[in-house]
Amino acid sequence: MISIQSTSSPRPPPKFCVPLPRPSETNEVLVYPSSISLK
Predict the structure, then answer these.
(1) How far is CA 2 from CA 5, 8, 13, 27, in A?
(2) Domain spans, the chain
(3) pTM of the model as a whole
């Protein structure tokens, strides 16, 4: 059971790391929060 939890924990972090290396993704992410702030 501990092994499964360990694998699940590292899985979410990689998702955030993926958009970081991508300049296009980072720009889109910044635009999303900006739209919410403007609203």
Answers:
(1) 5, 10, 18, 37
(2) 2-38
(3) 0.15
